[in-house]
């Protein structure tokens, strides 16, 4: 148990779903983006990311991707890039535009809804320009040892 | 020594705001996002992104983006670009997407930026045709020696 908690203290994937349009996967670690992540137990670990996407036909699709953090080798950038690449592959297989997944440094952004969906324009008298709040979670992260 | 560094970083913590004018889509606006010595933040930051709705130029969209400590300048620029692109994609207009770019400045050997320089500074490139864009950043909490963030604005044509 100590092993897992120690590792999570070093690595945290921050996922935000502040609104319905996107989910942010953020690889959080103490050092720079291109420094290897170190687990004091010297073991590798596996990360699982689950994201729910509303397809253009209106149906929700759950996606799960896994990636391995090699102790003292994998960097934050590499982990984010790997997760983004695997999500793109799964999107293509489901006829979803892979450009819904973008990657920048240690951060991956996933569009959860088709363009134009979730946009709330309100009324002429009371226009609302912010997208509506997400009604349920669009994703979460699991981190566990191998 | 540690106290001096902390003071320096605190002095560098900047709340920067840029307001840009609408113009042709062939020009762009660049926000330089600069993080401290390691290229990552030492505190969580809250960003407010205000911009003209690409679908309705008469309205302004305001979004709050929170990024945790250890965020890199590249990650910050990417997060802001992704947020802008969500709105741009919602319209079938001709506005090109926003993007994040590596810093393109000399200073290292042979006039090339060093790897450290690239990590420390990243750019958010916004098409001018998007209209008014306003970025503000506020340091939230403390998890280290100061919030090392600096955002500056530059306008230029491609």
Number of domains of chain B: 1
- Count of helices of chain B? 3
Oligomer: heterodimer
Mean pLDDT of chain B: 69
- Count of helix runs of chain A: 2
Gap from first CA to last CA of chain A:
13 Å
Major β-sheet annotation of chain B: 4 strands, antiparallel
Hey, which two chains have the biggest interface?
A-B, 29 and 35 residues
Global morphology of chain A: elongated
| Main sheet characteristics of chain A | 4 strands, antiparallel
Pairing-aware structural class of the strands and helices of chain A? Answer: alpha+beta
What is the residue-mean pLDDT of chain A, rounded to a whole number? Answer: 77
Features:
heterodimer; A: 146 residues; alpha+beta; four-stranded antiparallel β-sheet; three-stranded antiparallel β-sheet; 18% helix; elongated; B: 158 residues; 3 helices; 7 strands; 36% strand; globular; disordered N terminus
How would you explain this protein's 3D organization?
The complex is a heterodimer of chains A (146) and B (158). By secondary structure, chain A is α+β, with helices and mostly antiparallel strands. Chain A has one domain. Chain A is 18% helix and 35% strand. In chain A, the strands form two sheets. In chain A, strands 1-2-6-5 form a four-stranded antiparallel sheet. Chain A has a three-stranded antiparallel sheet with strand order 4-3-7. The radius of gyration of chain A is 17 Å and the shape is elongated. The longest helix of chain B has 17 residues, at 73-89. The termini of chain B are far apart. Chain B has helices at 2-12, 73-89, 115-120, and strands spanning 27-35, 45-53, 56-67, 99-102, 121-127, 133-139, 149-157. Classes of the chains: A alpha+beta (146), B alpha+beta (158). The A-B interface holds A 14, 16, 18, 21-22, 24, 26, 28-34, 102-107, 109, 111, 115-116, 119, 121, 127, 129-130 and B 38-40, 53, 55-56, 59-68, 70-72, 74-75, 77-79, 81-83, 85-86, 89-90, 100, 115, 119, 122.
